[in-house]
Amino acid sequence: MAKIRYTHPDGSETVLDVPEPNTVMRGAKLNNVNGIEAQCGGSAQCGTCHVYIDEANTLPLPPMDDVEDDVLYGTASPRRETSRLSCQLPVSDAIDGLVVHLPERQS
After folding, report:
1. Could you give the CA distance from residue 97 to residue 17 in angstroms, rounded to a whole number?
2. With CB atoms 3.0 to 4.6 Å apart as the test, which of 50, 65, 92, 104 could cross-link to 75 if both were Cys?
């Protein structure tokens, strides 16, 4: 289980304890976190689970593969160096304390 902090564009936060084997996206969807649409259900095809990883993050995240990299070029909110698809971030104890910032819009 990992505590994940979802920061909304207005500065408010939703903090969840997300159990394994979920992803950061699935944790948000199961708990009705606004700002994660995940229209494709988590298959890295739609880009509507785009998040910005907090710039202070030092937690070990999986490397981005070519599919995720391509999808991030088509997201509704601008891609940044810290952009990731939350469906590609598996929850584990190693990412306990992860902070993700939700973009202004997903579609």
Report:
1. 9
2. 50
pLDDT band for position 33 (50/70/90)?
A: very high
Encode pLDDT of 56-78 as tens digits: 999 999 999 999 999 999 999 99
Query: Which amino acid belongs to residue 29?
Result: K
| Those residues with Cβ within 8 angstroms of residue 53's Cβ, 6 or more apart along the chain or in another chain | 61, 82, 83, 84, 98, 99, 100, 101
- Closest CA relative to residue 21, chosen from 50, 41, 1: 1
DSSP tag of 80: -
Cα–Cα–Cα angle for 73, 74, 78, rounded to 5 degrees? 70
